[in-house]
């Protein structure tokens, strides 16, 4: 079954770090179409970080300098390293990627992983 499987969320104190993982099960990433999003209670889902065409990365202004997105192609896994976490980073984090399904690229969402940052 082709899917994205996330892990690594949890509760951390402000200033701490977490690393989120998103593994492509049964498939491979299209590496110019991978991103992490988050949704806080009562707010819309927003882009946090993405790998774009040519392998460049982009980040939301609120996380620049603190978060890093990376891909390990050998492990079919994308990571989000989150440092200097703040209470406002509290949200459910979702991985989004194009995966090869049959002969076509299709867009998938992970199941989400909760990140909670205490002050």
Give structural notes.
The protein has 119 residues and is mostly beta strands. The chain has strands at 3-7, 10-13, 18-25, 29-39, 46-51, 57-59, 67-72, 77-82, 91-101, 104-109, 113-118. The strands form two sheets. Strands 2, 4, 5, 6, 9, 10 and 11 form a seven-stranded mixed beta sheet that branches. Strands 1-3-8-7 form a four-stranded antiparallel beta sheet, with no helix packed on it. The protein is globular, with a radius of gyration of 14 Å. It starts with a strand and ends with a strand. The model has no long low-confidence stretch (mean pLDDT 93).
Key phrases:
single chain; 119 residues; mainly beta; 7-stranded mixed β-sheet; 4-stranded antiparallel β-sheet; 0% helix; 61% strand
- The general outline is globular
Residue stretches low in confidence (pLDDT < 50, at least 5 long) are: none
Q: What is the succession of H and E elements?
A: EEEEEEEEEEE
Described by strand count, sense and barrel closure, the largest sheet is:
7 strands, mixed
Which value, in Å, is the CA radius of gyration? 14 Å
Oligomer kind: single chain
Helix content: under 10%
Strand residue content: over 45%
Enumerate how many helices there are, as a single number. Answer: 0
Structural class assignment: mainly beta
Q: Report how far apart the termini are.
A: 40 Å
Number of strands: 11
Mean residue pLDDT: 93
Write a short abstract of this structure:
With 119 residues, this protein is mainly beta.
Topology of helices and strands:
Blueprint: E1 3-7, E2 10-13, E3 18-25, E4 29-39, E5 46-51, E6 57-59, E7 67-72, E8 77-82, E9 91-101, E10 104-109, E11 113-118
Parallel strand pairs: 2-11
Antiparallel strand pairs: 1-3, 3-8, 4-5, 4-9, 5-6, 7-8, 9-10, 9-11
């Amino acid at each position: 079954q082709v899917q994205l499987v996330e892990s690594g969320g949890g509760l951390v104190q402000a200033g701490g770090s977490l690393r989120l993982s998103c593994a492509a099960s049964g498939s491979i990433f299209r590496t110019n179409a991978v991103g992490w999003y988050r949704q806080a209670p009562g707010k819309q889902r927003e882009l946090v970080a993405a790998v774009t065409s040519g392998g460049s990365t982009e980040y939301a202004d609120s996380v620049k300098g603190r978060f890093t997105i990376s891909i390990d192609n050998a492990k079919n896994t994308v990571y989000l390293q989150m440092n200097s976490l703040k209470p406002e980073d509290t949200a459910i984090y979702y991985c989004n990627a194009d995966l090869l399904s049959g002969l076509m690229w299709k867009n998938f969402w992970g199941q989400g992983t909760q990140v909670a940052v205490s002050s």
